[in-house]
Design a protein that fits this description.
This protein is an alpha+beta fold. It is 41% helix and 21% strand. Helix 1 packs across helix 3. The radius of gyration is 22 Å and the shape is globular.
């Protein structure tokens, strides 16, 4: 997880404050997730003309309220609610308060959810339709918000980001679409897990992706995640962190600096290693290294 505070239950993040005199936006395209686009915005005087998107659009309102005409209804998404537009559905967007609205948006590539459902179920499915344009699900709204925040956090690895994105959206689709998709139980693909573990051990210092592990195991991305955790008790990125920290300990045993050990094991920087190391071992790399030096005196 990123170093920013994860205990907030309010919907105000990223320095964007409702009531500001101007609009503020932050936009990013993510090639590693099929060119997913993410937007964090505060709009105080924005009005969207009628339009549609080629892929699903899903967001969470952090402050204020967004109004939009959708499927013959006038809808309002307020703070803590999820706003959605299915592909091809014409809608607009406008403020329903004097302060505008602030939200975090995911613009999914065309066909992304359908591909994900095919990976989950093992067979082709029709277009994914959400039941409503505004969903009241506070727990999931917070989950979506935290996921969106991770796209701005340099310490979140590609593997963790891809894994969390897939898990979150698979669960979301299962709960809020029609006819819905059944999430399969994990099977007994021990060889596939062994191949993935070997890959992690051999490439722990590189930016491993979920696609890499899916390809080497021969399983779909979503099914791989369930099978791997079923057999190891850890998510793939947690397992990767475990291996990286184990190698970092060995490097510290051989008098390598903490900063160099962090870089050589694939962590973003020394502070990143410090946080992960302490979560696993209960002490910092510095404390571990000092204990080694003391024992050698």
């Amino acid at each position: 997880m990123c170093a920013m505070d994860r205990k907030h239950t309010t919907y105000s993040f990223g320095g964007l404050k409702a009531g500001s005199a101007r609009n503020r936006t932050s936009f990013r395209r993510v090639p590693e997730l099929d060119n997913l686009e993410v937007l964090h915005a505060l709009y105080t005087n924005q009005s969207f003309s009628p339009h549609y998107h080629d892929g699903h659009v899903i967001g969470v309102i952090e402050n204020g309220a967004l109004g939009f005409d959708y499927r013959g209804e006038k809808l309002v998404a307020s703070a803590g609610q999820i706003n959605i537009a299915d592909p091809g559905e014409v809608h607009n967007g406008f403020s329903v308060t004097d302060h505008g609205w602030q939200y975090r948006m995911f613009y999914l590539p065309p066909g992304y959810l359908e591909k994900m459902c095919r990976d989950i179920s093992g067979h082709a499915q029709g277009t994914v339709f959400f039941k409503k344009g505004v969903i009241q699900d506070q727990d999931f709204a917070l989950t979506l918000q935290r996921l969106h925040m991770d796209f701005c956090c340099r310490e979140v690895s590609l593997l963790e980001l891809q894994s969390r994105f897939l898990r979150v959206f698979a669960s979301f689709v299962s709960r809020h679409t029609r006819p819905g998709v059944t999430l399969p139980d994990a099977g007994q693909e021990k060889r596939a897990v062994t191949l993935a573990r070997d890959y992690i051990h051999n490439h722990f210092d590189s930016n491993i992706s979920l696609d890499d592990l899916s390809a080497c195991s021969g399983l779909s991305r979503y099914y791989f995640l369930r099978v791997f955790q079923h057999h190891t008790g850890l998510t793939p990125h947690a397992y990767l962190n475990q291996i990286r920290c184990s190698h970092a300990k060995s490097m510290l045993d051989n008098d390598k600096s903490i900063s160099q050990a962090a870089l050589d094991t694939g962590f973003f920087d020394q502070s990143h290693l410090n946080r992960v190391f302490k979560k696993i071992y209960g002490i910092t790399p510095g404390q571990y290294r000092n204990s080694i030096q003391d024992s050698n005196q």
